[in-house]
Write a structure and sequence with these properties.
Low-confidence stretches of chain B: none
Oligomer: heterodimer
Strand order of the largest sheet of chain A: 6-7-8-3-9-10
Mean pLDDT of chain A: 87
Distance between the termini of chain B: 18 Å
Largest sheet of chain A: 6 strands, mixed
Shape of chain A: globular
Distance between the termini of chain A: 35 Å
Largest interface: A-B, 28 and 16 residues
Structural class of chain B: mainly alpha
Radius of gyration of chain A: 25 Å
Number of helices of chain A: 21
Number of strands of chain B: 0
Low-confidence stretches of chain A: none
Structural class of chain A: alpha/beta
Largest sheet of chain B: none
Strand content of chain B: under 5%
Chain lengths: 540, 275
């Protein structure tokens, strides 16, 4: 096609020897047209980031683009001399990254960093550069550009940093913008704004955007065309509406089916006795205030939060990062000591226990953590990790081990898993192990802190199914913390929405989703990417 | 384990260091066979030159320098290893408790550590040995007392960051006791930097011991490299070999241990593993 600004032909990228496969990218071909936004979608390890980095010439050492061509304006980016590539980078093709904090130099002001790009690539005078800079910062809707030029990255919020990154990437009006998961680290409401900004700037400048994401909601928001990657191969490339609504390739079909629906499942409210109550729990963090500095920063992480969880019920705690949902959960199981309030587990007042007496009651309430790579001690075998809890609570070692193997079976792993180390398992499998470990103590309540956020969608669906099945079978009560409203819709009976440490709204899931009362809840729901697509899909 | 050796062996100089260290160890082990009898015994004419009747010559009293070096290796290595072991034990215990409990306990223990760190370590060691009267025991105690603060700082940092890790939190929520968490869960995960530091501490300990012996604060009944250098310093210009060979022994041993320590660092440091 004539208006293609970038054309990737039969790209192969080889991995260093002894990696888990020989090619990161195999025989990938696609084109990117002027003014078009192509989403490169795939699960982790599918080669989508490597493809983008190959275009920028930013492959890691020993990862080599071994065959194929990347054509930009008739030049093959894989074969031009480094000086030429440097001239193209930044000026013609630029990139934004997932984590704006690490992609910006923390020791330079925002103004100087963007100015550096201009002074490297253009002959403009300092005054002209400054003018350009100010115009650009207001283009990306950053408040008060004149003072922002003097700000350091840490003085900006995550969303503002990403805006600054976008400004930096667009300062030379590149023909192509490569965005590598630019909104993954952001909250949904911020994400919605950034996506809006990218769409707007693209329309204004006619930039072609290669947008890498794993989130089909985001795809539904912004993509014109979608390229789906699996294990380094491009399996499908089509118009966005086709891929989203009539995917052809079985892998794409699987991926889309795994995206949790935004429509809450119908369920009958649990009428069991109240298993856990938290009343007016408060936690304040104080930082700074050393010997010489008088300034103290006070963060009210949790303010007067009250929840009640019935037997057999799943209560979802939803909110954006920093809303205090994790802190509340940790206060409830007393991994963090709350400053005030009361937590009752049945008849037992948890907050009144001493550290020592609490230890005997810990088994009744167990936790599954977010990061399946961090929550298992890498030095011990899985069998030991699962049996550990019962053993320290006085169960005989042989019986505990037999039970551990049984539990591994319950979470869908076979008995041989017991003799392997955590690093030998994938993320989803590790999360299963973590669940088995928590269940080994036969708790009444399971606290799950973002248990699926670190997992790919297809794995996410499996782990959620597992949790639902176990909860049903063992009549567990579950406190489920998530920032993902799609997940919440599928898992939770009741929802509590948190913001700035306070619970702003509580109610049955279907009720809250259908008629959100609080303004913040409404804003949160409106920001869920791909909302319109999900509702359409549901109606069909 | 195979992976560990593979990574260690990739660092050539570390392997060289290990080889030198093996020779020193062998020499220490074989000293009573190579040079039976006391290294303090008079072996021949005083101040006879090296590479003649005696490999490294004799000193001002006619003691065999080579015998001194072989026997001195035992002292140096023994004191180096034992004092390091004591220092690491003390440091891990204090640093671990400080890092794990944090707050007041941490403040208290770290201020204590700082008191020790503010006193120049060699001067402190001299004072300690002088107070306790020179002997192998007092040397070991003095070296351990001046070396543990570094280990404590390191252990504190490791424990502090590990305490926040999710696997530790999950152990807390299982109802595990503090001691068990500290020593069964956290410690195995921060052994690598501690081992590396310990290996370098051995080298420092050998240097301190030599320094003390040089000043005449070593055990008078035990041969040591520092003592030999001290004994020969008055005749340095006329009989260079008395100081030089024990000096080279100290140099090579400390260098070898440092190289091994660096190799261990490369092999155990997870950030460099896949590079």
């Amino acid at each position: 096609m004539s208006d293609a600004v970038l054309r990737v032909e039969n790209l192969h990228v080889t991995l260093p020897p002894r990696a888990d496969r020989s090619h990161a990218v195999e025989d990938v071909s696609f084109d990117l047209r002027r003014g078009e936004l192509v989403c490169l979608v795939g699960e982790s390890g599918s080669g989508k980031s490597v493809t983008a980095r190959a275009v920028m010439g930013l492959l890691a050492p020993r990862v080599v683009a071994s065959a194929g061509r990347i054509l930009f304006n008739g030049e093959d980016l894989l074969r031009i001399p480094p000086e030429r590539l440097r001239a193209i980078r930044g000026a013609e093709i630029s990139m934004i990254f997932q984590e704006p904090m690490t992609a910006l130099n923390p020791l330079m002001t925002i103004g100087r960093q963007i100015d550096e790009v201009l002074s490297t690539h253009t002959q403009l005078s300092a005054a002209a550069r400054r003018e350009r800079l100010l115009a650009l910062l207001s283009d990306v809707h950053l408040p008060d550009p004149a003072s922002l030029i003097e700000a350091y990255p840490h003085q900006l919020s995550g969303g503002q940093r990403q805006r600054a990154m976008i400004a930096m990437a667009l300062v030379l009006e590149p023909k192509i913008l490569i965005a590598d998961e630019p909104t993954t680290a952001l909250d949904v409401t911020t994400q919605a704004q950034i996506l809006q900004l990218i769409r707007e700037l693209q329309a204004a400048h006619g930039t072609a955007v290669l947008f890498i994401t794993h989130d089909f909601g985001v795809v539904a928001e912004i993509a014109h065309r979608v390229a789906v990657m699996q294990n380094g191969k491009l399996v499908e490339m089509e118009e966005a509406s086709r891929v989203l609504n009539q995917p052809r390739h079985p892998y794409t079909q699987r991926l889309i089916a795994a995206v949790p629906s935004l429509t809450p499942r119908l369920r009958t409210a649990s009428q069991g006795p109240v298993a856990l109550t938290a009343t007016k729990v408060t936690k304040t963090f104080r930082t700074g205030g050393g010997l010489l500095s008088r300034e103290r920063r006070v963060v009210h992480a949790v303010k007067d939060a009250s929840i009640a969880l019935r037997r057999g019920e799943t209560l979802g705690l939803v909110g954006e990062s920093g809303s205090g949902k994790s802190t509340l959960a940790r206060c409830i199981i007393r991994l963090i000591e709350p400053d005030g309030g009361q937590v009752r587990l049945g008849e037992l007042d948890l907050t009144a226990q001493t550290r020592r007496s609490l230890r005997r009651h810990r088994r009744r309430i167990q936790m599954v953590f977010q990061d399946p790579f961090g929550s298992l001690n890498p030095r011990y075998k899985v069998g030991h990790l699962v049996a550990e809890g019962p053993i320290i609570n006085g169960v005989d070692a042989v019986a505990a081990r037999a039970r551990a193997i049984e539990l591994l079976g319950l979470v869908g792993l076979d008995a041989r898993a017991a003799d392997r180390f955590p690093h030998e398992f994938s993320g989803g499998q590790r999360q299963r192990i973590a669940i088995a470990r928590a269940l080994a103590l036969e708790p009444e309540i399971l606290v799950a802190d973002e248990p699926v956020s670190a997992l790919d969608v297809s794995v996410q669906a499996q782990v959620l199914d597992l949790l639902a099945g176990i909860r049903h079978r063992l009549n567990l009560s579950m406190l489920f913390i998530t920032h993902d409203l799609r997940v919440a819709a599928q898992v939770c009976d009741t929802i509590a929405v948190m913001r700035h440490g306070e619970i702003v709204e509580t109610g049955p899931t279907a009720e809250v989703f259908a008629r959100p009362q609080h303004t913040y809840t409404r804003e949160l729901f409106a920001s869920v990417p791909g909302r319109a697509w999900s509702q359409r899909a549901c109606r069909r | 384990m195979g992976g560990f050796w593979h990574r260690f062996a990739r660092n050539r100089s570390a392997v060289l260091g290990l080889a030198i260290l093996a020779i020193v160890l062998l020499m220490a082990a074989a000293a009573p066979l190579l040079y039976p009898g006391s290294p303090f015994a008079l072996a021949g004419r005083p101040l006879s030159g090296p590479f003649g009747e005696f490999l490294f010559g004799t000193d001002t009293l006619g003691r065999n320098v080579a015998a001194g070096i072989a026997h001195g290796a035992r002292t140096s290595l023994l004191i180096g290893l034992i004092s390091t072991a004591v220092a690491v034990l003390l440091g891990v215990l204090i640093g671990g408790v400080a890092g794990y409990y944090g707050g007041r306990v941490d403040d208290l223990l770290m201020r204590l550590t700082e008191i020790f760190q503010t006193i120049p370590s060699f001067v402190f060691a001299i004072v300690l040995v002088a107070v306790m009267s020179p002997s192998v025991h007092s040397t070991v105690i003095a070296i351990a007392v001046v070396s543990w603060p570094g280990v404590a700082r390191l252990a504190r940092g490791e424990f502090l960051s590990m305490r926040r890790r999710e696997f530790v939190q999950s152990c807390v929520s299982l109802g595990m006791g503090d001691l068990r968490i500290m020593f069964r869960q956290i410690l195995p995960n921060c052994l690598s930097p501690i081992i590396v530091t310990a290996s370098l501490l051995v080298a420092t300990a050998i240097l301190i011991e030599s320094g003390l012996a040089f000043l005449g604060l070593g055990d008078p009944n035990v041969m040591s490299w520092g003592f030999q250098v001290g004994a020969g310093r008055t005749v340095l210009r006329s009989a260079w070999w008395i100081c030089t060979f024990p000096g080279i022994a100290i140099l090579l041993t400390v260098l070898a241990i440092n190289l091994v320590g660096e190799g261990l660092n490369d092999a155990l440091n997870p950030r460099l593993r896949s590079a």
